[in-house]
Amino acid sequence: MQKNQHQLQRGLEERHITLMSLGAAIGVGLFLGSASAIKLAGPGIILGYAFAGMIMFFIMRALGEMAIQKPVAGSFSQYARDYLGALPGFLTGWNYWFLWVVTCMAEITAAGIYMEYWFPVVPRWIWALAALVIMAAVNFLNVKAYGELEFWFALIKIVTIIFMIVSGIGMIAFGIGNGGIATGISNLWEHGGLLPNGITGVLMSLQMVMFAFLGIEMIGITAGEVKNPEKTLSRAIDTVFWRILIFYVGALFVIMSIYPWTEVGVEGSPFVLTFDKLGIPAAAGIINFVVLTAALSSCNGGIFSTARMLFNLAENGEAPKGLGQLNKNGVPSKAVLVTAGALLVGVVLNYLVPAKVFTWVTAISTFGAIWTWSMILLSQIRYRKGLKPEQAKGLKYKMPLFPFTSYFSLAFLILVVGLMAYFPDTRIALIVGPLWLGILVAFYYGKGYHKKEKGNQGSARKAV
C-alpha cells in the first residue's frame, strides 16, 4: 500500500499505449474539423496533413529521446524544468492543464450536440454534465482499467475509418456501391486543380490541421505508468507518422476522390457523406456514434493527462500539495477532481456559447499545443547540448538528423503562430494565450517560486 501512495503504477501495456496514442490523434479534429480545413485548402489539404504529420513525427521523436532515458509522469513539463529552468517547467505544466481544460470544454459540449441527434428535446447541458461525470469517474479507476477503456474507445474510431477507406477504394477502383461505375480520382484535380485556393489556402488551414494533432504528445505523459518504457514508447512513436498517413491522408484522399471538394462539409460531416454514398442508410447514426466516442475519448485522455501534470507540479511544490496524493488505485484523485471542477465551467457555457466560440476554442488550444511542442523541442536541444559525445552516441533512441530536424520543426511552429496572427478568426488565440502565460508568470513570482528554484530542481532530480 505504501508504494501506491507515493508513486504512479506501471499498469499500461503496449497495446494500451499504441491505441491511446492513435486514439489521441484521431478525434473531432478529423471527423468534423477536416470539413472546414477542406473548404480552405481543397484537395491540397492532403499535403497539409502529410507535411504537418512529418513535423509531429519529429516532435514525438524529440520527446521520445528524453522519455526513454528518463520516464517520468510530468514528461515535457519535467524536462522543461530540468533543461530550461524552473519557470519554463512551471509554465509548461500549467499551460498544458489549461489547454486541455479548454479542449475538454469543447469536447463535452460536442457530446451534448451529438446526443441531440437522438434526443432532440433534452437540453444540451444535461448531456455535457453527464459526459463530464462519466469521464471523471473513469479516471478514478486504476490505470490498467483506464487503459482498457481507452483501448476500446480508440478501436471504434479506427475500425470505422479503416472500413471507410477500404470501401472507398472499392468504389474508386471497382465502382462498388456506385452501380459498378468506378469513380476514379479525377475529383482531386477537376474542380480548380489540386490547389484551388493556391498555397494560401493550405497555409490558412494549418491551424485546424495542427489542432487535429493535439493529444499525440500524450504518449510522453504515459511514460510514468507504462510497463516497459523503452520498447513500448519507441514503437508507439515510430508508427505515428505512418498512422497519420493512413488515417488522415488516406481518409481524406478517399473522401475527396469520391466527392468534389466543393460539396464536402456543405451537408454535415465528410464521413457521413461517404458512408451515405456507399449505400449505408444508417450512415448518419453510425458516424454520430463514432464521433460521440471520439469526443468522450478525447475528454477522457485530457482529464488523464492533466491530472498527471498537476501531480507532477505538486511534487515540485508548484501546485497545492494535496494534488500530489494518490488513492488506493494509484490515481492522483484530487488532481482529477480539480480538473473536473474546472470543466464545470464548460457545462455552464452551454447556456451562453454561440457557434463562433468553437473556432476560438480550437485556436486557443492550438496556441497552447504549440507552446508545449516548442518546449519539447527546446528541451531536447538543450538536453543534447549537455551530453558528452560518447553519451550522445550511447542514446537508446535518437532524434533523426539532429539538430536540423529540431530547428526545422521549431521554425514550422513559429510559422503557424504567425499565420494565426494574420487571420482574424484565429487572432484571439494570440491574445488569450499570452495573457494566460502572463498571469502564470505573475503568479510564479508573486508566490515566490523563483526563490525555491534551486531547491525544487534538486528535489526533482532526487525524485527521478
TrEMBL record:
The primary site where this protein sits is membrane
Q: What are the record's GO terms for cellular component? A: plasma membrane
Query: Per UniProt, which keywords does this protein have?
Result: Amino-acid transport, Cell membrane, Membrane, Transmembrane, Transmembrane helix, Transport
Give the GO terms filed under biological process for this record. amino acid transport; transmembrane transport
- Provide the Amino acid permease/ SLC12A domain boundaries: 16-441
Q: Which topology term describes how it sits in the membrane?
A: Multi-pass membrane protein
Where is the protein situated, by its record's location annotation?
Answer: Cell membrane
Instruction: Tell me the superkingdom of the source.
Output: Bacteria
Q: Which PROSITE patterns match?
A: AMINO_ACID_PERMEASE_1 (PS00218)
Q: Does the keyword Membrane apply?
A: yes
Q: Which protein, by its recorded name, is this?
A: Amino acid permease
**Pfam families in the record:** AA_permease
